[in-house]
Every structure is written in structure tokens, then in C-alpha cells.
Amino acid sequence: MNINHMKAFLEVARSGSFQVAAEKLYITQSTVSARIKVLEDQLNTRLFNRMRGGSELTSSGRNFIRYATTSVRAWEQAKQEIALPEELDAMISLGVQLNLWQQITPNWIEQMQNNSPEVGTRVVMDYSDNLLRQLMDGELDLALTYVNCNLSELCTKQLFEDTLVLVATKARDVQSGWVDDYVFVDWGEEFREAHAIAYPDTLAPRLSVGLGMTGLDYILNYGGAGYFPERMVDALINDGLLFYVDKAPMFKRPVYLSYPKEPINCELLNMALINLQQVLQNANQTNNVNAFSNMHVSLS
Fold first, then answer.
1. Which domain-ending residue is among 80, 101, 117?
2. 190 with 168, same domain?
3. So what's the pLDDT on residue 84?
4. Could you say which protein family the record assigns here (predicted)?
């Protein structure tokens, strides 16, 4: 069977739509339909019931998900490991939500390289939804995201919870309505919803950014205010470069770890999880600016 055909099947199964699957795969809807038709002919069974409002899996389609997922993951892992240099025995792929790179990933990679030098590391930085799709397609072994994913094929655990605080380059009280120098940092859908409730009269800001470090660099250089994880700005507040905005509401930002319930290489995945757990425990035990607050680790 063709791997691309199975990728099309998995995308339609997730979205319930041939059109949405085509858009995510960057191919035409007719191509998706043709690939599903080939699979159905090869398996001699119908995989989807086509309806006016979309498509739903048949019982055969539901049974086929596990085999298609395993095949796609095995293929992606084979592509990575066949071309490995002699110095490496395996390769693990980590997906990291863009705003989480500086918070955890460098220490995690260093820990793995020190403890398992025979294993190479591939890091993909993207937004949470894209990372979860790559994880489902077998292109990643595990991913750190802002999404509490409830897909049956994945195991998802909350790693820790950040506190987002409003800070500014000058001391001030919280204001309602338009704030000229407010920089809106997009910390995800849950933050956007909570922010809208806390500031119902706020108009669209002059500047919105998708990366925390981009927003922080901007206000440090040009002045202004924005929401950031408390541990990210703690040292800057102590140095007098930033100030808490008085009476401003705070928001919680949970971070989740997701990985396949049936991984291709359990030993490799466990190695990464053990090293991640050690990094989080070390960070929680220190008092420096990189420490994580409100952390609860449970990877087993």
C-alpha cells in the first residue's frame, strides 16, 4: 500500500471531510478521493460513509486506523534512520511549540545528548495544531504544545502551568479600553478567550505578535506593556527594566506533552521522557530565573 494513500485516509478520518483533508495535505479533493478509492479497492471494503455534511468512518475504517497509523510512523522513522551516520544508532524527533523553545528545549536536548550520545535529535518548531498533526502522521515522536489533545491514538499529559502576568516598561496601573503601547502576545486560543473576558472593552491593539520573545524584545527596545510568563520576566523586574502592572488580572497557560500510545520504538520514547522528567525536576529544584513554577510532573 502507498504511504500517501494512508496519510490521506488518516487526514479524512481526523477531519471528517475530504475537502479539509485536501487543504491540509495541499492536494486536490479529487486526489484525496482517488487515494481513498485505491485503499478501498485494495482492502475490498468501504472505509467511509459519504454524507452531505461530511464523511464518517465505517467499522472497517475504524479498524484500519491503527494499521495505517503504525505504517505511516514506521515509514517516517525508517526514512530518518536509514540515512544515519555510523556514530548514531537512532534518531528521535521532538515537536516544540514556538513559544516554548527557550523555556525547556535546550536543556532537554543537552540532557539527551549527554546521557544518550548514540541517539540523534531532530527538533521541529511550529504551532501546536501543526505539531499534533505531524505527531499523528508519524513525523514526530513526541510534542510539547498548548493543546490538551484528546485523540484516542495519543497520550497527553500536562507538564506544568505558567502564570502569564502583565508587565510594562514603566510603573502603571491597569487600564481599560485602548492602550496605545500595549503589545498583544498570542498565547493560544484559551488565552485569547480569557483575555477577551477580562478586557471586554479592549479594541484591537496596535501591535499583535505570535512569539513571546518577539513581543518582549519589542517592549524592551521601544517601551510598552504585554503579557508574559512570570518566570520569563522575573529577572527583568528585579533589574528594574520591567514593572508589574498593578491590579492586572493574571492568566494560566498549561503546557502539555503528547506522544503515541503505541510508539514504534518504546525504548527511544522512554529515553526522551526520562530525560525530560529530569530536566523539569532540576528546574523545579533551582531558584534561578529558568525555574518552572506550579509544576507537576507525571510521565509514567
1. 80
2. yes
3. 66
4. Belongs to the LysR transcriptional regulatory family.
CATH of the domain at 56: 1.10.10.10
Are 97 and 73 found together in one domain? no
Q: Are residues 270 and 186 part of one domain?
A: yes
182 and 258 co-located in one domain: yes
Set of cell numbers at residue 198: 477580562
Q: What is the pLDDT of residues 195-233, one digit of tens each?
A: 999 998 877 888 999 889 999 999 999 999 999 999 889
Tell me how long the chain is. Answer: 300
- Among candidate residues 18, 45, 80, the one where a domain is terminated: 80
Residues 140-152 have pLDDT tens digits of: 899 999 889 888 8
Contact 90, 268 (CB under 8 A): yes
DSSP letter string, the chain? --HHHHHHHHHHHHHS-HHHHHHHHTS-HHHHHHHHHHHHHHHTS--EEEETTEEEE-HHHHHHHHHHHHHHHHHHHHHHHHT--TT-SEEEEEEEEGGGHHHHHHHHHHHHHHH-TTEEEEEEEE-HHHHHHHHHTTS-SEEEES-----TTEEEEEEEEEEEEEEESS--B---S--TTBEEE---HHHHHHHHHH-TTPPPPSEEES-HHHHHHHHHHH--EEEEEHHHHHHHHHTTS-EEPBT---EEEEEEEEEESS-S-HHHHHHHHHHHHHHHHHHHH--STTPPSSB-----
**Per the structure, how many domains does the chain have?**
2
CATH number at residue 174: 3.40.190.290
